[in-house]
Amino acid sequence: MTGLLGLAPVALLALFGSPQDKEPAQTAREVVEHTTTVVATTLLDKEMASEDKLRIVQGQVDQAVDFPTISKLVLARNYKKFTEAQREEFIGEFRRHLMFTYWKNASSVKFFEIEVKGEREEKRGDWTVKTLVLDGADGLKMDYRLRLIGKDAQNPGEWKIIDILVEGVSLVSNFRSQFQSVVSNQGADKLLELLRDKNAKAEAERTKE
Amino acid sequence: VRKGRAATARALALAGCALLVAGCASQGTGADYDPFEPANRKVFWFNNQVDRFVLEPAAKGYAWVLPDPVERAVSRFFKNLRFPVNFVNCLLQDKGNAAGEEAARFAINTTVGILGLFDPASRMNIEPHKEDFGQSMATWGIEPGPYVVIPLLGPSNVRDGVGIVPDSYLAIASLFRSFEVLVGSYVLGTLNARAMLLDEVDTAKAAALDFYVFVRNAYYQQRVQAIADGEVVEAADDEYYDDEDLYDDSLYDDSLYDDEPEEPAP
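The joint structure predicted for all components is written out below.
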């Protein structure tokens, strides 16, 4: 009971606190620490069924990653060439594509540990959290770039992942180059078609297993 | 006398390389600067076929026979042999401390680490410094120039491709004049490196919508990082993180994409 009462001031603050003073519920570092910890424990759980693992990991990723912003950044000026419907479809298909590819890779790993190695502020208020994935060998550098999304007069906003850099190679930059090449050579429709085909193939392969 | 002549020839070749690079690399930059794209794609296709039908199957067999720790030891052995390349290029880039660390690493890993099969130096916090002549030229202000795919060697650019020549003279393997030893060590090194990347290449191919552009962009970004030596660098194209700039057409160079349209994928 006292425990619940102890929460009362927090609840009151949440109701009446002035929004300008409010900090996001989690810092950028905490978002990365929390998400990577839950994903790692889930993946390494020997008891859990594969379908359950996928569901939990997807939930974590959807919570932490801002797919609409990533989609804007990877499409860059091609974003303009897309109709509203195409944009919506793109966000969905690109999310599916990233999930499938990395799920296939991550779910086969038997052992790894993730250490947060540091963090730094970027231009435009973005925040980079540096991690090292230890798998018994040299380790893999994975940096996450986060942005405070949804901050306004009422809301403190939330830190969301907008890019992942593997050994310094930015996923956003890499996909942007690819999409730019496809769209300028073959058009926006072709890009969506390629994504749809890839995803259908990956889905078929996954359910076959 | 013959040695002296050879040295002069090498110096001249080096100077020639530098001139060639300076000439070629004077214009154009960026991850997508690829004026030779049609030719590059053909070489890329060729390399990919060699990988699919020769290298990857061989690497799979190799990985099946040898346990991972052995693969890692072989990889460390070859890394250790790169010492002269790293050392000289550290000096060329005016990094005295790094050159010293490289020398210490070589001394420790060759002896205590049994010919470089192990890496006790890293455990003593003596960090490796992988430097090459392409990076040295970059620190002298030479631009990378157009992207180039080299047959059998893979992604590069004019500057880094030229850099391979002096580096190959420096590698310890070149001390062995026997052709068989040279070829043998090259084959083993390549096979081992490929065996350690089986899953990564599979993932990359699955993730990419255009594998050629995937590799081109990844190569560019990796070189930017290598040249900066892990110092904080602006992301390769930092301005693109800006939502407001996203629609600024002046940031984009259309001429990069004006080459003949590709064949639609089958």
